[in-house]
Write a structure and sequence with these properties.
The protein is built from ten helices and six strands; from the N terminus they run αααββββββααααααα. It has 266 residues and is mainly α. It has one domain. The strands form three sheets. A two-stranded antiparallel sheet has the order 1-2. It is found in: Membrane.
Length: 266
């Protein structure tokens, strides 16, 4: 498991868990138990809330604490001085390049993260909210985290507004927590939905954020010949029905990682 001692990332993770736990506490102990303790609807809303928040936390953990796709470092140092003197030799026919910071070969579309100080396969960006890079191996979980946060925000906002309208007797605690939940749902929900749309768009365009930034204006405007959207999405979410894509577990069976590691061990 990975845990990066980046102050910004640690603060963002603490805020994320604090908001999720506050949401769980307020829904269960401020709204449901006092007002819907003997109602079947109360049990149903409690199960829905716990399920959504559990999926948020599990997706976040898979994105934050596991390998995003680090390019393995060679066990023995390799001298690239002759290659670096000639820029034309930095790319081969398969798109592999040499990282000047890691001093290692890296696959096509791999980029160096200045915070992690490692090259990451299909690096999109370094996200402080997961205190980790978003790369080939954890982009699915990052997108699922955004998706479940967005769904949870919409559900919590609707449930809080409904409870304020239905129940005439409102305690001070209920009003205060309801206001905080509405603010959290609106701000956090809009934020993650925006990033979620951007992530899906990058998958459908088959270009990460860094890939797009490194292109010149002419290359960005040049139309691409892309595979079908389902094929592009399967590269990230794995095989199987679409419903299985919503599970924060690994559905991909690939030997690329082992092949890459064996290549560096030679």
């Amino acid at each position: 498991m990975l845990f990066r001692k980046d102050p910004c990332g640690i603060i963002c993770i603490v805020l994320t868990y604090a908001m999720l736990l506050h949401c769980l506490y307020a829904i269960l102990f401020v709204i449901i138990i006092p007002l819907l303790n003997e109602s079947l609807y109360g049990t149903l809303h409690a199960l829905i809330t716990c399920t959504f928040i559990s999926l948020c936390i599990f997706s976040h953990a898979r994105a934050a604490y596991f390998d995003p796709g680090f390019v393995p470092l060679p066990k023995k140092g390799i001298d690239f001085s002759d290659v670096k003197m000639n820029d034309n030799n930095k790319d081969n026919s398969d798109g592999w390049t040499i990282c000047n910071r890691c001093d290692t070969y890296r696959p096509a579309r791999s980029h160096h993260c200045r915070i992690c100080k490692r090259c990451v396969r299909r690096l999109d960006h370094h996200c402080p909210w997961i205190n980790n890079c978003v790369g080939e191996f954890n982009q699915k979980y990052f997108i699922l985290f955004l998706f479940y946060i967005g769904v949870t925000s919409i559900y919590v906002f609707s449930f809080v507004i409904w409870s304020l309208i239905i129940f005439s007797q409102k305690s001070d605690s209920l009003i205060v927590h309801s206001i905080i939940l509405c603010i959290e749902s609106c701000l956090f929900g809009l934020f993650v939905v925006t990033i979620f749309v951007d992530q899906v768009q990058s998958i459908l365009n088959d270009r990460s954020l860094i890939d797009t930034l490194k292109l010149d204006e002419n290359s960005r405007m040049t139309p691409q010949i892309l595979p079908p959207a389902r094929v592009l999405l399967r590269k990230v979410f794995g095989p199987g029905p679409i419903l299985l894509w919503l599970l924060p577990c690994d559905l991909k069976k690939s030997n690329e990682t082992l092949d890459l590691q064996n290549m560096h061990n030679v």
